[in-house]
Structures are given as C-alpha cells and as structure tokens.
Design goal:
With 232 residues, this protein is α+β, with helices and mostly antiparallel strands. The chain folds into two domains: 74 residues, no CATH class; 114 residues, 2-Layer Sandwich (Alpha-Beta Plaits), CATH 3.30.70. Helices cover 54% and strands 15% of the residues. The strands form two sheets. Strands 2-3-1-4 form a four-stranded antiparallel β-sheet. A two-stranded antiparallel ribbon has the order 5-6. Helix 4 packs across helix 6. The longest helix has 26 residues. The chain is elongated, with a radius of gyration of 33 Å.
Length: 232
C-alpha cells in the first residue's frame, strides 16, 4: 500500500525535532559570522575613469570617430592589463605583488556604447587600492603614446580615499543570511530523515497504522509525573 504523509504528520515531525531545527540554523549563523568578521580578510575597492577621445587638429567629431574610439576600448583594456603597463606600476609604487597578482586585483570595464573606461582595483589596504588605480591610469596615459602612437586618452576622474572606507567583501550580513537559510533547510531535511529512520512505535495510532488492527486498550504508566501509555 502506498504511504502518504499529511500536513499534520509533517507538523508533528517538525515539533518533535524542534530543538534541532532551531539549533542548527543558529549554529550556522554564528559560524558564518565568526568566519566573516574574524577569519576573512576585508577587501577594499577603488576606481578611476579614463576617457578615450578622438585626437586631431580641427577638433571635429563624427559618429565614425566615436565608433572607432569605442572599438579601441577592447584593445586598450588588454593593454592596460599587460606587463608593459603593470610592470611599470609595480616599479613606480614599489609593490610586493608580482605581475600575475596585480593582474588578478584589476578589473577593466566600460559602459555600452561609451568611451569611458573604468579601472577598478581591489586590495586589502584601501589607500593602496587608491594609489594603484590612479597609477595605472597615469602610466597607461603616458605609455599609450609610444605603444600605439596616439594621444587620445585622458583621465576623467581619479580614485579618492574616503574618510571611512568600507570593504566590498566579505559581506557578513549576507553570509549570515545565507547560512541561516542553508542551516534551516538542512535542519528540516535532517529532521525528516531521522523521523523516517526511526522505526519505534510511539502511540496507539501508529499501532493501528502499522498492523492495520484496532487497539483494544492501553495501560497507563503512573511512574512518571506525565502519563505515558503502554500499548497492548
């Protein structure tokens, strides 16, 4: 006979394992908070912007010039992350990072159909993130003249260090929220699994369900303050 489970049985299972269902999410939240606040290193982010513009004598622009500059952005993004630029930044700032390490800290992106390129740097020290972002923009502006024989890059905005910089990661509140949800789902799953594996008979109704026989009577147990029934 196919077994089904009712909402009442599900509720009873949850109530029987209520301590587990409460304890596991709380433990998960505490663990996530401890890791986020005390074990993970805060990462700060700083950005600067450069503008790729057309350079000519008569200062006339047309849609083709803008289209050309936008197409150049893909090439410039590769050049910014190349050793020709980043090695000079490392030397100028006397960084301990290698080229590969600095490259991993760097992110280049631009808005769609825009001539503005965003240079974003992530670092454990907020002041260093600002310094690296500004130095990359400055070195690139100077070096692109020799690399591509053009002078069409200008610095639109520089990175600045705020009074109280906030890390972009980790996000303790988000981590704890995720831990709570995962812990709650895990606790409910474990509760139903334990209930499924528990083959003991707890009351007369389960006797009727298992044996498909009516219960003739029960013997009360008066040894404890709360009445418990012995099934016969």
């Amino acid at each position: 006979m196919e077994e089904t489970i009712s909402l009442k049985e599900m509720f009873q299972t949850i109530m029987r394992r209520l301590k587990l269902i409460i304890a596991l999410p709380v433990l998960a939240v505490c663990l996530a908070g401890f890791v986020s606040f005390f074990l993970l290193t805060p990462i700060y982010q700083s950005s600067t912007q450069i503008l790729v513009n057309h350079s000519n004598d008569n200062q006339s622009f047309n849609s083709q010039d803008i289209r050309t500059n936008i197409d150049l952005i893909n090439t410039y993004s590769v050049i910014i992350k190349s050793p020709a630029i980043l090695d000079k930044v490392i030397d100028n700032l006397q960084l301990e990072d290698t080229y590969s390490q600095l490259n991993e800290r760097l992110q280049i992106n631009s808005e769609n159909n825009s001539q503005v390129v965003n240079i974003t740097v992530k670092h454990e020290k907020p002041a260093m993130a600002v310094a690296i972002a500004n130095e990359i923009a400055l070195v690139f502006q100077n070096e692109i003249v020799e690399i591509m024989n053009v002078d069409n890059v200008s610095i639109l905005s520089t990175a600045e260090l705020g009074e109280s910089p906030s890390p972009v990661s980790p996000n303790p509140m988000l981590n704890m929220a995720i831990a709570f949800v995962v812990g709650l789902m895990g606790a409910v799953g474990i509760a139903f699994l334990l209930d499924y594996l528990d083959t003991t008979i707890k009351d007369e109704k389960e006797v009727e369900d298992v044996l498909e026989l009516p219960v003739l009577g029960v013997i009360p147990n008066f040894e404890k303050s709360e009445e418990k029934k012995l099934i016969v």
